Amino acid sequence: MALSSGDRVAIADVLSMHGHICDSGELDRLDEVFTADATYDLTDFGQHPLEGVRAIAAAGRALGELNPVGHHITNIVLTELGDGSVHARAKGIGVNADGTCASVTYEDRLLRGEEGWRIERRKVTAHRVPLGGKH
């Protein structure tokens, strides 16, 4: 089944909503972005993957003032997978309270359920060197 333009817009909205929800501190609304049993993989940051939307929200609360003040997403590329899910690859920019910024790549697997598209798995990879270290 071909991914419709409506699906593409809905998926981009879900990916963008993550930043709006986090930056406004409305972590109880993360079920609008993630499936209930979502995995949030932070192993690139030396942490264990978070399992479930409640664990994702709890981790955000625990991070408290160390959270970025701005989560921004850009360069979204969507690929249909044969099982009806969608792979999304996007760039993330985090702006900290002190004005410093960081860049990541989000690798997401999204599923369409009764409430629409949701992220079932997210892997976050930090960018620490220019050109991915290949220069």
UniProtKB/TrEMBL annotation:
Positions of the SnoaL-like domain: 7-123
Superkingdom as given in the UniProt entry: Bacteria
InterPro entries: NTF2-like_dom_sf, SnoaL-like
One Pfam match: SnoaL_4
Name of the protein in its database record: SnoaL-like domain-containing protein
Organism expressing this protein natively: Allokutzneria albata
